[in-house]
Amino acid sequence: MPSVIYHPAYRKYAFGEDHPFSPLRAEMTLELLRALGHEVRTQAPEPATREDILTIHADYYVRRVEELSGGLAVPDCEEYGLGTPDNPAFPGMEEAARWLVGGTLQGARLISEGGEKRVLQLGGGLHHAHRNFASGFCIYNDLAVAIHHLASRGLWVAYLDIDVHHGDGVQQILYEDKRVMTISLHESGKYLFPGTGEIHELGFGLGRGLKLNLPLEPFTEGDSYLEVFDRVVPAALRQFQPGVLVVQAGADAHFDDPLADLMLTTRDYEAIFRRIFDLADSLTSGRVLFTLGGGYSLRAAPRVWTILYLLMHGLPVTSALPEAWREKWVHLAGEALPRTLHDPDPGHAGIPNRGEIVHRNRQVAQRLLDAAARYWF
Amino acid sequence: MLVRDIMRSPVITISPGTTLQDAYRIMQEKGIRHLPVLEQDQLAGIVTDRDLRLATSALSASPFPPGGRVSEVMCRAPLTADPMDPVEDAARTMREQKIGCLPVMDDARLAGIITGIDLLDALMRMTGVDKPSGRLEVRLPDYPGELARLTAFMSHRGLNVHSILTYPEGPGSVRAVLRIGSIEVRMIAQDLRRSEFEVLWPPEKPCPR
Fold this sequence. Notes:
The complex is a heterodimer. Chain A has helices spanning about 25-35, 50-55, 60-70, 95-110, 140-150, 170-175, 220-240, 265-285, 300-310, 325-335, 355-375; strands at about 5, 40-45, 120, 155-160, 180-185, 210-215, 245-250, 290. By secondary structure, chain A is an alpha/beta fold. An eight-stranded parallel sheet of chain A has the order 2-1-3-8-7-4-5-6, sandwiched between helices. In chain A, helix 1 links the parallel strand 1 (about 5) and strand 2 (about 40-45). The mean pLDDT of chain A is about 95. In chain B, a hairpin with a 2-residue loop joins strand 4 and strand 5. The longest helix of chain B is centred in the first third of the chain and has 11 residues, at about 20-30. Chain B has two domains: about 5-125, CBS-domain (Roll), CATH 3.10.580.10; about 130-200, ACT domain (Alpha-Beta Plaits, 2-Layer Sandwich). The interface between A and B is large, with 43 and 39 residues.
């Protein structure tokens, strides 16, 4: 039976009402699952300790987070990415961030110590947080802390990041680590934040060839996404032979997302999740830890993660969404919520220059494999 | 600014059978340091002036003779760039790999070449990408106060502009390239459009739902 990790304290990780990173996304997902008649049992984690945080983050950075969190003035906070429009400071933010890290770390422990196979952490995925600065809504890097735990317990980790933004923090923190492969599929940094995630960022030292990036054209659709996924991800994982998968399942590659320009539908997400479970079954004895991540369309993200939950539990992906749920959350979404779990088919009007996008993604995937293969064989 | 905007084309090339002596002479005559090696129109490698000097050095235990072949000293499977790559991505690759040039490939065809010198030219017109940021390109009318209107917009939203750079685009207009320390660049772009700025990147979504 897969484990689901959640705690109401996750709601404290909130940057303000108009901020896109709403903690209510997880709650919408949980309520949707329950409204669909599923009895979701969640496990409550503990917040991570200061020592847990310091396995990854610099002490001088953590101190600044603590001071801001306690209401103290930190004159140089913007140098550390704090007190900015993306990461406004708020009282209690340090503890709020440790709750999310604690959840992901708990998921890692269930796998490393509890023999659990499938874990879903209904929060976290803060992949932009760097060792010594906050970035892109991310204060502490729960993923890097959890990956560090797994690797130090002898489980080599393949980290797969399907958030629409490059997983720059996780990659950078683990750039020289030979026990961790990172693979990030994202919209290219041509104009999208954070601007990194190029194919030639391949790792350093013993980690060389183990950090892979597949930057996709803006307005890439599902067919092209899945094509390059199939071309790169299974080959890379088979090469690395991980003991566990850690997946940042950001839902912001959905076409409805307001922050980015990939064009995935919920059906594409279902196809991606199915592939990930198949890869886990064949390569890691089924061991896989999912976190949430980006996903700023309240019309789309809860449906994507509901589909993830259903697949994880081997449940059928049903269709109609309960009216009560749609009515309860319509005020947050600002417009009517969809009537069905999957997007209508087709979900959007289509892309004018699709052929060129498909072609360029294919070329990028090939170039990545050529570059990485020099270190694999 | 893209690689295709700064690359050199057509490219001076040699073949694997070219002698080291001839390769050296071509570099001297043309004043260049990098020669892509083509075999039946396919990129087979690249040879630099440093490769030639090291291979033939009297300090080497077994120096190559002047009549040695380029195929014996060239770097095989060099890293390449795409014509549509932004210039700053190419620069980062070259710095990280400590290499002095990138052949530019359009499909399997050698379309051009860029070297460190070309990037310095580019650097004078734009700037780097050392912090997590999103990128905006805005076309401004070329008269006083327009750039101030743009930066006032950023300031009003509390946004940190990592870099800003403008270059004349044609009669009457200026292109401003900004790197903003925010993940919300697409939303910023939409707000800019509502304030009647002409935003080129990110583009409008081609297919609103």
